[in-house]
Design goal:
Layout lengths: L1 E5 L2 E4 L3 H12 L4 E4 L4 H6 L5 E3 H10 L10 E3 L1 E6 L2 E6 H5 L3 E3 L2 H14 L3 E3 L3 E6 L7 E5 L5 E5 L2 E4 L9 H4 L5 E16 L8 E5 L2 E5 L6 E8 L10 H11 L10 E14 L3 E2 L2 E3 L5 E2 L7 H20 L5 H28 L7 H15 L2 H12 L5
Parallel strand pairs: 1-12, 2-3, 2-13, 3-9, 6-15, 13-20
Antiparallel strand pairs: 4-8, 5-8, 6-7, 10-11, 11-12, 14-17, 14-18, 15-16, 16-17, 18-21, 19-20
């Protein structure tokens, strides 16, 4: 058995990028089909980062009257940089007139899935994509197998790969599944979710002799915390007591409120930018196009910035028959991607202690932290990037 459908834009991936793209296209009168290999339950349960930039929140409020970003989410007007036994607050509104919101990505996804399904979006779960057939350059075809194991082809005027870091669509844009610019880091994050009240009103990014720790939050009852670890660390190895000792030693000056650890994981660090973001009528957005290390929480925000650019370009192409914006998509997207790539790399190196750090390296790093925290220009640079550069 096989089936085929036609649409204007085929979107591979029902993450934040794919879902927001379908909404922005619908607003422009352009229909789309979204396919994703996962089930709706898996998508809604995946634990990811929790910080939304000001521009991301403004966009969610504009496209979704029912977004819970202001009810379940919380505005954060600053973060604390902790080093050398001192805390330094970075006051976002005072420095740059913007804020961030703590609103976990899986909650964003629940809102967006509900929004699109209510609007009648053709959204198919459990669909494995084998590749994109571009033999007719004006009508690329997504070749897939649907949830019942039957072949499915989606013929479109344009195909968008919003299918994450292991993108299948990428091969149709770059010739290989992994061609691009890479950087590995000698760091991982040991992450936990725990049942406890917040230990601090705002996020703490702490650099200590023993390494980095991040005290983040999820809700009044559940907290998210991370500490720097070896990238090959086994999440099951340490006892709960060892985890709390490690975290506490890295946040001197704050007494962490502990509680049952309900989830643990190890995050790997990697920077990646695909060599090409578009070929003909196939383009990449989000993690399919780039990966950043987690420090600073740029991943989802950057994906959404790609989508804002691409949706404008697709409207020009498919409604106005104007090819200028799609021809400029890659260059414009890369401007922000490399700024975010730099910011994530910089925050990572500013705060983590390299396994082979010498005394010189440690003292230089504390000098850099002081340069940032003690200068209004330094704090402003951090606040500008953390809260997000304006969206186009
Ligand atoms: C979170 C993750 C980040 O990478 C970050 O910089 C801040 C918060 C989080 O998961 O809460």
């Amino acid at each position: 058995m096989s089936s085929s459908v036609s649409t204007r834009v085929a979107i591979v991936g029902a993450g934040p990028a794919g879902l927001i793209l379908s909404q922005l296209l619908a607003d422009a009168g352009i229909d789309s089909v979204i396919v994703d290999s996962r089930s709706r339950e898996d998508i809604e349960a995946t634990i990811r980062a929790g910080i939304l930039e000001q521009g991301t929140v403004d966009l969610l409020r504009r496209i979704d009257p029912d977004t819970r970003v202001d009810t379940v989410g919380n505005r954060h007007d600053g973060i604390e940089l902790r080093f050398g036994d001192e805390g330094h607050r970075i006051d976002f509104p005072a420095l740059v007139g913007r804020s961030v919101w703590l609103y976990p990505q899986h909650e964003v996804l629940k809102d967006l899935l509900a929004l699109r399904l209510r609007a009648g979006q053709d959204l198919r779960f459990g669909v494995s994509v084998a590749g994109v057939d571009s033999s007719d350059p004006k009508h690329p075809v997504v070749v897939a197998t649907d949830a019942r194991g039957e072949s499915l082809s989606v013929t479109a005027d344009f195909v968008v790969g919003a299918d994450g870091s292991r993108s299948v669509v990428r091969a149709a844009v770059t010739d290989a599944r992994s061609t691009g610019h890479f950087r590995e880091y000698p760091y991982g994050w040991f992450g936990i979710l725990c049942e406890a009240p917040p230990s601090s009103p705002e996020l703490i990014y702490s650099n200590s002799e023993a390494g980095f720790a991040l005290i983040s939050q999820r809700s009044p009852e559940v907290q998210r915390m991370y500490f720097q670890c070896d990238p090959g660390a086994d999440p099951a190895a340490p006892s709960d007591a060892e985890i709390w000792d490690t975290l506490q030693a890295r946040v001197p000056g704050t007494t962490l409120i502990d509680g049952p650890i309900i989830q643990r994981d190890v995050l790997r660090f990697r920077s990646f930018v695909a060599r090409d973001l578009r070929r003909g009528r196939v383009a990449l957005v989000g993690d399919a196009a780039h990966t950043v290390p987690p420090t600073g929480a740029k991943g989802m925000n950057l994906a959404i910035a790609d989508v804002v650019l691409l949706s404008d370009a697709l409207r020009a192409l498919l409604v106005d028959q104007n090819e200028g914006p799609i021809d400029g998509y890659e260059e414009r997207a890369l401007d922000r991607i490399w700024k975010a790539q730099h910011f994530s790399w910089w925050m990572t190196n500013l705060l983590h202690v390299a396994p082979d750090a010498t005394e010189f390296d440690r003292r230089r790093q504390l000098g850099e932290l002081r340069t940032v925290a003690e200068s209004e220009a330094g704090r402003t640079l951090l606040a500008e990037a953390y809260t997000g550069w304006p969206l186009s």
